[in-house]
User: Fold this.
Amino acid sequence: MTALADGSAKQIQAEWVKFRTVRGWVIAMVAGGLAIVVLGLGPSMTGTCGKNGPASSCSGPLGPGGEQVTDSFYFVHRPLTGDGEITVRVTSLAGQIPTLSGGMQRGLVPWAKAGIIIKASTRQGSAYAAMMVTGGHGVRMQYDYTGDVAGLAGSVSAASPRWLRLTRSGSTLTGYDSADGSRWTRVGTVTLAGLPTTVPGGLFATSPQYAQTSGGLTSVYGGSSQATGVFGRLSLRGDWSAGGWSGSAIGAPGGPAAPSPGGFDAAAGRFTVTGTGDIAPSVSGANGNGVTIAQTLIGVFAGLIVVAVVGVLFMTAEYRRGLIRVTLAATPRRGRVLAAKAVVIGAVTFAAGLVAAGIVVLLGQRELRHNGVYVWPATALTEIRVIVGTAAVLAVAAVIALAIATVLRRSAAAVATVIVVIVLPYLFTVAVPILPLGPADWLARVSPAAGFAVQSTLTQYAQVSDVYAPSAGYWPLAPWAGFAVLCAWAAAALALAAYLLRRRDA
Assistant:
């Protein structure tokens, strides 16, 4: 075992000497790292919003956890000055959706919502808990934008109404639903930290933008949709203030082209509430704002090409000059030669990628914020994963390039194959997303481009319909699962390369 380890170490040292003595390879690796840094910290990091104001002026409202949220709905409310309960029966949820011509037609967005809500204040982004019926997902209890708990399934109608109840005890809110108003089921309980003694509560309606799928491409068009909920048998218990109900369009956009913010009508104990917008976390899709830390690594595309070419030349140069015969004569264990080359090219690439990615991620966020660009927040552990993962992806890609070069032996053919296998999938899914979502999603799952899932920093929310694509920062695989796909490609390529290297003459 000691002799085997010594032999491997000496072979790695020999390959390292070969690499560092070829000045062009060293310069190329440095240039690849500089490309990542220069493109990442270049003039694209500019913006105008938020430069002289708070982050929310660029990102929109921020939720209780500091996350970017959408908080736009029509609110029929009155003050709750302490503990209390609100109960209502919902008999109808209807809506309107936009048409391609710019008009409106009857239709209901699956996440259209109408129900009861208790909110810390009417300020956008404030804490809340709500019980609601939806257009296509049954009864839900949602809270603080990211929380979502399922209740009764099915759609609501006059023949199949839904009863909703929301109780407050201090900072704790509990939601219930019922199909008949007699037998109640608890849907969920949540504690809203710092909830004021006096809070607004009441009825609401809202409806997010409508997404039309056409030819495999998802596009959002035509502006906002609307939802109208019909409520009856409203009852209040506890410390509700006396007086009438007030209507407020929370987060309603202004300007002459803005859609109607909605409104309400109350007659004979029946309330009809119409609203538009959403109460949910924002996503970095077709309607998202800001930049993720992964998007600061746009230069990785250039770096990927450079390290792939160097990985190819690290093997094909020996074939072109005839030095491979000397190498294999000195080391009869051909698999050891391939392994040593893989270790050297992988280690050098990882080091260069680690330094470049670290500079871009750490300094890039500061530069973006200084230039007024909203950066989606990420934890320190996530930043470390993105930096280390990016370097690891580049290293494994270089190893795949080395293996392909071993199989093909010709620089031009090997580089062309590497571009087809590694570079083009990344180009089509991330850098220049020109494929329909279906094929792009497939490539992001099975091609080496899946490895770039390690750069993912965003959460895909079931309660938000949007364009969840790799180009927007959403990958179909978990970070390390995607990296495992890339490693599987490397293992397969190395196995084929080792087999052919042993079978063929030098």
Summary: Residues 47-57, 215-220 have pLDDT under 50 and may be disordered.
